[in-house]
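Reviewer comment 2.1 asked that we show a complete input and output for one of the modelled complexes. We chose the D-glutamic acid case, as it is the one discussed in the main text.
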Amino acid sequence: MEHHPIGVFDSGFGGLTVLREIERVLPQYDFLYLGDNARTPYGNRSFEVVYAYTLEAIEWLLERGCPLVILACNTASAKALRTIQQRDLPRIAPRARVLGVIRPVAETVGTLTRSGHIGVLATAGTVASDSYRIEILKHFPEVTVVQQECPMWVPLVENHECDGAGADFFVGRDIGRLLERDPLVDTLVLGCTHYPLLEERVRAHLPAGIRVVSQGEIVARSLAHYLERHPEISARCSRTGGRALYTSENPAVFDRSAALFYGRPVRSGHICLPNR
Ligand code: DGL
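Response of the prediction step:
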């Protein structure tokens, strides 16, 4: 069988927390990961820029034979996915599919809350897009969704400060702000690829009884169901257990930090974006 990996895209390292979980559930498939580390972070960029960067990355993955691409980045899923699905894909690759990470979480999270109050922690861009609230309310119109941007969390993770006093301060502050606005929240979505690395710290600041929702696991299960429901797509994805990782930064720089997100050592290759 020819090589047709499932593409996984993120603005940088963070999508590796999603890829890790996907691989656990679907180890037989081939995966091609692309991190746009040269242009990260996406979380504070405008709609236009996130859309343009994401489209360039998806085009690269499609050119490499991916029948299916997962946008593992919440910000890209929030700001670029719909336009790419509706406007670009029919033109550039009508048989290919691109899926995001927000919808699978939105479809699940309403079944987990008892109080009907859901909190979402995310980048400023994801919160500004309102995507989590819109998607959750589509599936669970009776719930209340309160969102809190956490602009310092990604830089803290990227600078290996998860265990420091700075992380403790900002995690405590942002959770405090969210719960002050809605003390009835009993289910908390970590709506950013980097936040699983701060999960312990988040739990330390939460009152008892609040459930933390782990995005990677939900996305992995949802992808497995998607492939079952769409045999015409899964038949086009090759299954030799292959993995390849690329970054738009220097691969040595990527490999040094990637293991933190992926859970094991990484050897990446380099590409230029845009790839013209
Ligand atoms: N991957 C991004 C997300 O999940 C976080 C990092 C960034 O801001 O680029 O929103």
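Strands lie at 6-10, 31-35, 68-71, 97-99, 117-122, 144-149, 187-190, 211-213, 243-247, 269-270. We note this here for comparison with the apo prediction described in Section 3.2.
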